[in-house]
User: Which sequence fits this backbone?
């Protein structure tokens, strides 16, 4: 966990090191600072800030382009401050044209993220596993990615280029777009929502020699739930599990509320919950108490 007075390592360089390993880097999704801390405490080496989960947690609405770039950056900043591991952040479409992308990259970089994900949807965008998506032209997205690469001040900031073309124009176009995105300077490629293992294998075969690849293990989404071993065999470097923490939290809250509604108190649910002291330890109360002692009198 991020200590309040810790000297932070360079998470961007660390992320690139993790991405170069032979096995895929497994990165769960966080929707807020607390879920990010839990991911780090569970032993994972990086955190993925999910746009789907950020939208759901901040405004209680679906991921259909309702959040602004400022709201997403604010959430990224809070998540980065809560953990010491690298944070990869969803930045949707960059919130406009190539000029908007320049500012988006600068703001995310100032927030401290180690990687930023940009996609080729037209605004208002939608979750990659929803229907009805629209794309910008490949040339426009190439320009946005060139702008992103030139806008970063730290060359270690990872630029992840995502294409949603599979559901709109097909796998051939998705591969062609991803290849062009790599030529534009993207560090990592992300072909969203292939719907068969055959298509996944084709994407991996044709693109893994071009750049490192992301596999989106979207819980309940359109992509087949491959084993981690199979994902590694295909050549993916990064696997994100974007919304499992959000779904688990939703299930837990529902269960508690059902007990409270039926019983009038949460007593019967308490044995399955963290205790008060356990939870305050988890969110760093002992460190605060130590600092209070250090600076008192």
Assistant:
């Amino acid at each position: 966990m991020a200590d309040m007075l810790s000297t932070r390592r360079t998470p961007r360089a660390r992320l690139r090191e993790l991405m170069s390993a032979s096995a895929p880097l497994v990165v769960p999704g966080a929707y807020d600072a607390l879920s990010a801390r839990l991911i780090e405490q569970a032993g994972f080496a990086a955190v993925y800030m999910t746009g789907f989960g950020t939208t759901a947690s901040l405004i209680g609405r679906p991921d259909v382009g309702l959040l602004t770039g400022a709201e997403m950056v604010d959430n990224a900043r809070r998540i980065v401050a809560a953990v010491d591991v690298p944070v990869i952040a969803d930045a949707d479409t960059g919130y406009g044209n190539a000029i908007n992308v320049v500012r988006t990259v600068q703001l995310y970089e100032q927030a401290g993220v180690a990687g930023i994900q940009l996609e080729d949807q037209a605004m208002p965008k939608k979750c990659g596993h929803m229907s009805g998506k629209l794309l910008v032209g490949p040339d426009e997205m190439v320009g946005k990615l060139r702008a992103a690469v030139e806008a970063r001040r730290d060359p270690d900031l990872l630029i992840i280029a995502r294409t949603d073309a599979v559901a709109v124009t097909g796998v051939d176009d998705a591969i062609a777009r991803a290849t062009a995105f790599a030529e534009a300077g993207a560090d990592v490629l992300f072909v969203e929502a292939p719907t068969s293992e055959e298509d996944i294998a084709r994407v991996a075969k044709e693109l893994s020699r071009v750049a490192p690849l992301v596999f989106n293990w979207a819980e309940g989404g359109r992509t087949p739930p491959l084993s981690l071993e199979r994902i590694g065999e295909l050549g993916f470097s990064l696997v994100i599990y974007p919304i499992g923490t959000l779904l688990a939290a939703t299930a837990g809250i529902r269960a508690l509320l059902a007990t409270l509604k039926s019983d009038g108190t949460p007593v019967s649910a308490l044995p399955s919950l963290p205790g008060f002291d356990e939870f305050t330890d988890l969110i760093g109360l002992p460190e605060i108490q130590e600092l209070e002692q250090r600076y008192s009198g």
User: Anything to note?
Assistant: The chain has a mean pLDDT of 96. Residues 244-263 form the longest helix (20 residues).
